[in-house]
Amino acid sequence: MSLDEARIDDVVVVKSINAGQRALRRLMSLGINIGDRVRVLHFGPFKGAILVEDLDSGVKVALGRGLARKIIVEHAKYN
After folding, report:
1. What is the pTM assigned to this prediction?
2. 3-class DSSP string for 8-64
3. Domain ranges in the chain?
4. Domain 3-75 carries which CATH code?
5. Would you place residue 79 in the very low, low, confident or very high pLDDT band (cuts 50, 70, 90)?
6. Residue 77's pLDDT band (cuts 50, 70, 90)
């Protein structure tokens, strides 16, 4: 599923990013990388930005829906 399909408080793992080099560099500069665990904190109204927290780095980032749609995630598995 893509990140924009997750629900508030879901913890997901970034599996892949289906975007060009520019978007990949932007995400990396924001601290979002493949393999990171991310918690969805908030969805902006009217299909606005998605606020997420990277649980590995502690960084909170607002992502536009278009970019979030390119981030493929799966629910995190707890041991």
Report:
1. 0.89
2. CCCEEEEEEECCCHHHHHHHHHHCCCCCCEEEEEEECCCCCCEEEEECCCCCEEEEC
3. 3-75
4. 2.30.30.90
5. very low
6. confident
